[in-house]
Specification:
- It contains four helices and no strands.
- The longest helix has 15 residues.
- It is an all-alpha fold and 111 residues long.
Length: 111
Amino acid sequence: MVLQDDDVQTLPVHSISAGLDYPGVGPEHAHWDQVGRVKYTSVNDHDALAAFTTLCETEGIIPALESAHAIAHAIKLAPSMTEEESIVVNLSGRGDKDVVEAGRLLGKTWD
């Protein structure tokens, strides 16, 4: 699975998270998609930053920007769920490495 145009050329990609700045997935993920085991979605940079801020403010947890994308999707998904359903978001990394970049993107500075 690779993001491609009609001429089968790889499309340029961008993400605030360097770890997600890649136009495709590996063969295992492609297989899981084909057999219906997973569903891949996307989140824009604005929503990922909002999720980053929300988790920091509500739980005192600084997520990695990669994980902030998953949190953003969970925030969008939650209102459509029943009280019996749950969401588990795996925070794959510490966000201390991303604090300066998140602050820059949010227009915050530290002296």
